[in-house]
Amino acid sequence: MIFTVKTNEKIAKDVYLMTLSGDTSKITSPGGFVELELPGLYLRRPISVCDAQDGILTLIYKVVG
After folding, report:
1. Exposed / middle / buried, residue 59 (Cβ in 10 Å: 0-12, 13-18, 19+)
2. Beta bridge partners of 19
3. Which pairs count as long-range contacts for 61-64, CB under 8 Å and 24+ apart, including other chains?
4. 34 near 58, Cβ under 8 Å?
5. For a tag on the chain, would you pick the N or C end, based on fewer CB atoms within 10 A?
6. Main-chain phi, psi angles of 46, to 5 degrees
7. 23 φ, ψ to 5°?
8. CB distance 47 to 61 below 8 Å
9. pTM, two decimal places
10. How far apart (Å, rounded) are the C-alpha atoms in residues 48 and 33?
11. Residue 36 and residue 31: Cα distance in Å, rounded?
């Protein structure tokens, strides 16, 4: 699935809320996991889905390390 980043907002110290737009029909419920693949980079850690509805995928993640 291909998504486009719409927002990436800092919501707390080292914590971000990212919204992406695209086809969310295969994401059935919050609590599932997605892996992000970027050209030239690959994030091998799963990221939990916060919300997925009406073509908007919401992820909350913390920057560590």
Report:
1. buried
2. 7, 58
3. 61/15, 61/16, 61/18, 62/14, 62/15, 62/16, 63/14, 63/15, 63/16, 64/14
4. no
5. C
6. -70, 145
7. -80, 110
8. yes
9. 0.84
10. 4
11. 16
